[in-house]
Each structure stands twice: as structure tokens, then as C-alpha cells.
Amino acid sequence: MALVTLAYHAVLLTEYRATLSQFIMPWTIRLCIALSVTSVICLLAFAGLGAIYRKEHNDHRQECRRLIENFLECRFGSKAAGALTHSAAERNTAVNGLRSEHAPTN
User: Where are the domains of the chain?
Assistant: First the structure.
């Protein structure tokens, strides 16, 4: 919205402003410049926060994977722990193997 208003003032206004200071004087343009600057500041701030939170999320996910891998290794042996680090096909094979090994027999 702020960029559209600035473009309107720069291109479509009938009175021509000769200098930059004359162009910036109307209150609508000053308001649009303030909105644009605050929008850029907010964009940078939220992008930085997003990067920080993404890094924390990745660290927590890795920690959870390590805990689950340790749990599965203690509970079922190294075969189940390795299933977390393999491809999807290998993972499905390992999980199906665990199910068949620990399935109740009639």
C-alpha cells in the first residue's frame, strides 16, 4: 500500500515537485515512507527470529532423534536404532522386521 501511494504521488499527481524536499513535504508521503521503513524493519526482525527459532527447532529435533535412537537401541537392539537413519524403504523393512520378531505367538 505504501509503495502504491508513493508511486501515485511520484507519477500521477498533476503538480510537479522540482526538488526532493518538495516531494517529501506532503503528510501522505511522509506517512507512506514511515510505513515502508517500519515494514522493512519488521520484515528483517521476523526473518531473524524465524532463523533463530528454526535453528532451535532443528536442535531439539536432533536431540529427540538421539533420545529415541538410544531408547530403541536399549529396548530392541541396534537394528531398530538404525532404522531412524536409513531411507524410507529400509526403514519400513526394519520396522516390519521388528514387528515380526516381537509379535505374540498363538
Answer: 2-7+20-76
